[in-house]
Amino acid sequence: MTAARTLPGQPAALSADRPPLEVRIFPRSAPEANLRAVRLARRLLPQGGHLIDFGCGTGTHLSTLRGKAEIAAGYDLSDAALDRLATDMAELKGAAPVSLLGPEFRDLERHVAASGPADLILCLSGVLCHIQSRAARCDMLRALSGLLAPETGRLLISVPNRRRYFVAEQRAAGPGAEEIRYTRVTAQGSDEMSFRLYDPDSLADELRDGGFAVEAMAAQSLFSEAMTVRSPPLRALDWFAAPFMPARYGYDITGVARPLSAGNTPA
Which residue has the higher pLDDT, 124 or 15? Predict the structure, then answer.
């Protein structure tokens, strides 16, 4: 099999039998909160509820939503992201304080043990796709399921659609390409990252294997966040058109899922 074509500054797609390829990329600044995800999160989160943003980064969604929560927490592996978020949160007034947790998952477990189960967990901006193996992703989903209120808690998740990301690289890699690996370079250094691409069926399968029942799936967006941030006309078109687009054609895919437990089985 010939090597996958690698564009300057872009990752290369990998088929299942291809060893990891190292490609250096330089990320753009964090985008704004996705307005459609925010609106859906506000519907799912009860007033005065408990919100957890898993993989919160610098808090684009958490900062927007924390006003509706009585208890809010952000979890991330990056100390730099959490430090920046702490600084930003200190400047915001009139909302409940936010617990910033990480990098150990047990920090999040201790938070839930002290504050009670969450009503809504956000897992947005492709957080799931950066976990390298399917087994590890399902383990993480099962752990998140255990942090949610059994009957009423919900997971709001978004992942990249393989139909819309790195299409040429997937084609060059041949059948079975579903993951890319890359080196993310920042001012603080470099990190080896894995990036899993999804379609609605593969996302639903992993959610089920991770202890969730899928309640809804939709296209989160018609265009990339970078495009809608730069262009108000595209942003308006995205806002009105994306709700009518099947999930399989969205730039990103959004899912809502409930945790499975005794007495809470799939319909």
Answer: 124
